């Protein structure tokens, strides 16, 4: 069975003011919770860690080692 880009996570390169798609997909996985984040809803990530987060709260807790 062939998968299209809507069926798999995207691979992104996170930058300070945005991200670059390295491999197509329609979502990424939150590093803190494991939930899928649609690319159009992605607002939080770490440039240093190259990780995405589903919310500001999850990002803060994860980056402070509390989540």
Structure description:
The chain is mainly β and 67 residues long. It is built from one helix and six strands. It has one domain (8-63). The protein is globular, with a radius of gyration of 12 Å. The chain starts with 10 loop residues before the first strand and ends with a helix.
Q: What is the helix tally?
A: 1
Q: Terminal Cα separation, in Å? A: 37 Å
Number of strands: 6
Uncertain runs? none
- Shape, principal axes of CA atoms: globular
The biggest sheet amounts to: 2 strands, antiparallel
Question: Topology of this protein?
Answer:
Layout (H helix, E strand, L loop, with lengths): L10 E5 L2 E6 L3 E3 L6 E3 L5 E3 L4 E3 L2 H8 L4
Antiparallel strand pairs: 1-2, 3-4, 5-6
Essential attributes:
12% helix, mainly beta, 67 residues
In short:
By secondary structure, this protein is mostly beta strands. It has one domain.
